[in-house]
Amino acid sequence: MRRTPSPGSVPLSNEPYVPLPSVARSRRRFVLFRVVVAPPLTAPRSHAHANEPSTAPPAEEGVFYGDMPDVGVERHLRGLSDETKKALNAILDVEHAPSDVVLPSMAEIDAEETESQRLKAERKALLADEQEKLRASRVSVRDRFGRSGATGKRKTAVARVTLWPGVGDATCNSKPLDDAFPDIDHRGWMIKPFLVTNTVGLFDVRAIVRGGGKSGQAQAVRHGIAKALQLYEPAFRPALKKAGMLTRDPRVVERKKPGRKKARKAFQWVKR
Question: Residue 112: is its pLDDT beyond 70?
Answer without folding.
Answer: yes
